[in-house]
Structure to design on (101 residues):
């Protein structure tokens, strides 16, 4: 699941909810946004690894921490927080690594 941020209509709470729900909490994950405007959750490739082509990324979410998966997607406050992080940082993030959002 990914969100094309080039079309503002694509960035919705429901789209963020679906993206979070589709990811597994059994591995480390990271929300990444490419320079071309595609937001996605990377599983396994996290932290500072393979960042070529990325505009920005959020902090790594540790496996088992509850930041992704169906339970995370049901948390309205968390979904709004991720939604706002995307909205506030696309297309001009202040940094390529965002850990306060």
């Amino acid at each position: 699941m990914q969100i094309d941020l080039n079309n503002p209509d694509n960035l919705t709470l429901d789209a963020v909810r679906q993206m979070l729900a589709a990811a597994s909490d059994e591995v480390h994950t990271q929300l990444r946004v490419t320079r071309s405007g595609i937001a996605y959750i990377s599983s396994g490739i996290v932290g500072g690894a393979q960042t070529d082509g990325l505009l920005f990324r959020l902090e790594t979410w540790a496996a088992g921490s509850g930041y992704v998966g169906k339970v995370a997607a049901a948390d309205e406050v968390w979904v709004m927080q991720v939604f706002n992080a995307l909205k506030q940082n696309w297309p001009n993030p202040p940094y390529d690594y965002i850990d306060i959002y």
